[in-house]
Design goal:
The structure holds two protein chains of two kinds.
Chain A (H helix, E strand, L loop, with lengths): L7 H5 L9 H16 L2 H21 L6 H33 L3 H5 L5 H33 L5 H29 L3 H15 L12 H9 L3 H7 L6 H25 L5 H5 L1
Chain B lengths: L4 E10 L2 E11 L3 E5 L6 H8 L7 E6 L8 H4 L2 E4 L11 H11 L4 H14 L16 H13 L5 E5 L7 H16 L3 E6 L2 H4 L5 E6 L2 E7 H7 L1 H4 L1 E6 L2 H10 L3 E7 L4 E6 L2 H15 L3 E6 L4 H8 L2
Parallel strand pairs in B: 3-7, 3-8, 5-6, 6-7
Antiparallel strand pairs in B: 1-2, 1-4, 8-9, 10-12, 10-13, 11-12
Helix pairs in contact in B: 3-4, 4-5
Classes of the chains: A mainly alpha, B alpha/beta.
Chain lengths: 270, 308
């Protein structure tokens, strides 16, 4: 190869080069997250979800009745819709950019892969927490409107459990998204087998399901415990599992993302 | 001078498909063209350079370090992928500001850098309030280039940036790249059309079937591709005698002689050796040469033959 004259780029290569700090990586990803969500199609989907549930709840409630309100807010909303919303919202954390061929723009920034994954997950979880926080407010309003007994007290517990549920199901869904492009199928299979099936086995094996621990926490509200026949045994275990599971799952996801390559399938086939 | 990129026995395979096959080369600072037909391994190489893929075997270093999961190296790189895809729902300033923050700039600096780079790639301000999904191919290429320039990289890696551009767009893109190069930015640019890169790049790397066919300056490439590089057409009074002398001197890979037309077409074994001995051989042969024409006029012809 022929010798080239000295080039400024080579001389500048010794300047200080630092990875992007956490705060700026989070800021950039947060901006990209909400800017892309607050556009017509995603906004319409989100608005539909946020409005349909309280409207349906409003139509089906009867004033002063305890059971329908509790069934809606726990069985249907917290234990079914929240996990599904997390699966939909966090499963595509990496896959959506991968399938949209926009991942290379993000991955070639000076952010370590683990840091990138964790920051993106944090932004997505924050976004989902915000949306489900609004949904929680709607449900609370419906409950108060229909004078559901003890609605306010139950809703405060519900909000706390919802925050933990989003963290746990969100990090799990993001992991499914990393593992396979058909993360929705994977998540539904997991849901049916573990969260529905294993959770109902009346032995300690039900500790493997996150929903069992959510129910344990919800049982702190006596009318709910009575209605569902849930117990408050192992409350601390439930708190521990729901706190540590997201940490473990996010760490595992970061590890996988650090070692595994993610490129659009046609690139890999080429 | 230390190369910006060094590959040694680098291979990358996807299952049983070889993307890159045991290649070794250096990329010096400056502007380097990466040329090869579709499927040659160009994108695979650029993805390894930008830390998106890992080598299956061998090594590749950028600024003397492996780029995979290396934020320090990525802070010096700007990458413009081949795919046309951009986040369709975003406006260019929002997208670039977000990416600027990811590149380590604070929000205000990212915003002003985004504006400056959009100006730099000559995307008219009247288009800034439109969503990227509404952009033409040429405008998307400009925004893609702008995002690669946001953090003032020292090495710009561009995967087929001229794809889909009309002739005017190609010319403008070439001007932008030349301007960047003149400001000290090193550029590694790929294309399957050599003619696009030949006037731009002092250094060329030719890939085909995952192997490096030639690398170096334009002259070096001609020399490296000596099997194909030089073909001369000589009109003289005794082509048979001249052919015999050249063949005896072991300078030819082959020849076609047409005594009626008094022409000799020769394929050189080693152009350097040929030109060193040519004058002496010609004088000693006593053949009168009327005209010599090189049949290999540009790298493009070499490239077409090599990759055929």
């Amino acid at each position: 190869m022929s010798e080239s004259p000295s080039h400024p780029a080579a001389e500048r290569a010794s300047d200080s080069d630092r990875p992007t700090p956490w705060r700026r990586a989070l800021g950039g990803l947060w901006r990209l997250t909400w800017k892309s969500q607050l556009t017509l199609r995603p906004l319409a989907r989100t608005a539909a979800f946020l409005l349909v549930v309280p409207i349906l709840a409003h139509l089906t409630f009867r004033a002063d009745q305890l059971e329908p309100y509790y069934r809606w807010t726990t069985d249907f909303y917290l234990l079914l819709l929240v996990p599904l919303f997390c699966l939909y919202g966090c499963g595509g954390l990496v896959r959506d950019d991968l399938q949209g061929h926009t991942l290379p723009f993000l991955l070639t920034r000076p952010v370590g892969r683990a840091r990138f994954y964790l920051a993106k997950l944090a932004c997505q979880l924050a976004w989902i927490q915000m949306l489900l926080g609004i949904e929680w407010l709607f449900l609370l309003t419906v409950g108060l409107w229909h004078r559901a007994p003890d609605a306010a007290a139950m809703s405060i517990l519900l909000l706390g459990v919802q925050v933990l549920a989003v963290l746990a199901y969100g990090t799990l869904s993001a992991l499914f998204g990393l593992l396979h492009s058909r993360y929705l199928v994977l998540g539904l299979l997991y849901g049916f087998i573990v969260e529905v099936g294993v959770a109902r086995i009346p032995t300690n094996i039900n500790s493997f399901s996150l929903s069992h621990h959510l129910q344990t926490l919800l049982a702190r509200h006596p009318p709910l415990a009575e209605l569902h026949d849930w117990t408050t045994e192992d409350t601390w275990l439930a708190v521990l599992v729901l706190t540590l599971a997201p940490v473990f799952l996010a760490g595992l996801g970061a590890l996988i993302f650090t070692v595994k390559e993610y490129l659009p399938s046609e690139e890999m086939q080429r | 001078m230390t190369p910006l990129i060094q590959a040694r026995e680098l291979s990358r395979w996807y299952g049983i498909v070889m993307g890159l096959n045991n290649v070794s080369f250096d990329v010096p600072p400056g502007m380097t063209g990466l040329v090869g037909p579709n499927g040659a391994g160009k994108s695979t190489l650029l993805q390894i350079v930008t830390g998106q893929l890992q080598p299956s075997s061998g090594t590749l270093t950028v600024f003397q370090e492996p780029p995979w999961n290396n934020a320090r190296i990525l802070s010096r790189l700007g990458y413009c992928p081949e795919s046309e895809a951009v986040p369709r729902e975003l406006m260019p300033l929002d997208w670039l500001t977000g990416l600027g923050c990811l590149s380590g700039l604070d929000a205000a600096a990212a915003r002003s850098r985004a504006e400056a780079t959009l100006d730099r790639v000559r995307l008219g301000r009247e288009h800034w309030q439109r969503r990227l999904g509404q952009y033409s191919k040429g405008m998307r290429q400009r925004v893609k280039l702008a995002q690669a320039l946001l953090h003032d990289p020292r090495l710009l890696v561009l995967d087929e940036p001229m794809n889909g551009l009309d002739p005017l767009g190609r010319q403008e893109m070439a001007q932008i790249l030349q301007h960047l190069a003149s400001q000290g930015v090193s550029i590694l640019i790929s294309s399957h059309i050599l003619a696009e890169l030949e006037p731009l790049c002092p250094h060329i790397l030719i890939l085909n079937w995952g192997r490096v066919l030639a690398s170096g300056g334009r002259r070096d490439i001609r020399s490296e591709l000596k099997d194909w590089a030089e073909e001369l057409s000589i009109r003289c009074d005794d082509p048979i005698r001249l052919a015999r002398r050249l063949f005896e001197a072991d300078l030819l890979r082959g020849f076609d002689c047409d005594p009626a037309e008094k022409t000799l077409e020769i394929r050189l074994r080693d152009p350097e050796a040929f030109y060193a001995q040519w004058t002496g051989l010609l004088l000693s042969s006593g053949v009168a040469v009327h005209e010599i024409r090189s049949r290999t006029q540009s790298l493009r012809q070499i490239f077409e033959k090599v990759t055929a």
